[in-house]
Amino acid sequence: MHITADTLLNALRSQGMRITDARIQICEEIAERHGEHLTATAISETVDANESTVYRTLEVLEQAGIVEHSHMGHGPAVYHLAEDSDHHHLVCERCGRAEALPAAAYEALVAGITAETGFVPTSRHFALTGLCSRCKAENT
Amino acid sequence: MHITADTLLNALRSQGMRITDARIQICEEIAERHGEHLTATAISETVDANESTVYRTLEVLEQAGIVEHSHMGHGPAVYHLAEDSDHHHLVCERCGRAEALPAAAYEALVAGITAETGFVPTSRHFALTGLCSRCKAENT
DNA sequence: GTTCGTGCAAACGATTTGCATTACT
DNA sequence: AGTAATGCAAATCGTTTGCACGAAC
After folding, report:
1. CB burial class (10 A; 0-12, 13-18, 19+) of residue B114?
2. For chain A, what is the domain count?
């Protein structure tokens, strides 16, 4: 079952943060659209809260370890639940769409690196740019 | 031997672009400081050219395939010679040291991604954070 | 009642753009 | 001469911040 807005709100509550209308809506939005790449602007357009409030709330949620953000090429930062598995992204340099890096491929990479160098990757998000299959096909 | 400013300028010339004072200085700067991560602002501070000229020139050089840029977290984009960019790094989050990502591991990753998703990674510069073997050992 | 959270507008850093002037070819 | 490149200032985009007001505790 997916994470609910209440889970997020309880996490805030347990950190002594106040529960407000804006935070409720923002948490609902994040919970409902988990797995998506949400920008602060996108959230502020959907919920009844000022953009700066969205930024501040996202910052709070991030400090609480609930959400994370990453910078993908140009454009705004994208936020997602920290618990979502797809922290690793493939970003198309042509159309800008992002897809998840297959978990198997990532695990193989980590295993290979550790075996060869002893280095243990811990990064929770990174992005690899390239051409998605669709743009690749269009690209004569 | 390192690439020279003339090489860069010739590349521009061969694309029908004009050679100007600003471009000469910018190319010299890039050639001299190759291997470094240069921001547009840093370049404009060193050479006698407006910041927007630097951006425009970098854009031209990028379209010519001579330089590339990447976004590292927050902060400005960094530019470097395309030929310098075939580096994938493992950056230790504890000691800050960077080591090279084994080519075999990277190639396996690319192959795995393409096989599973059709996505073709083209980025030749990305970094994975984690713990290096040394810090891992120290880490109780 | 005391903080904390909010909206608003303004400040901000990085980058882009419109336009008149300058200079390469 | 003709057109591309420049400088400058203003515009833009994403994000942060200062401040006075309203709301959660």
Report:
1. middle
2. 2
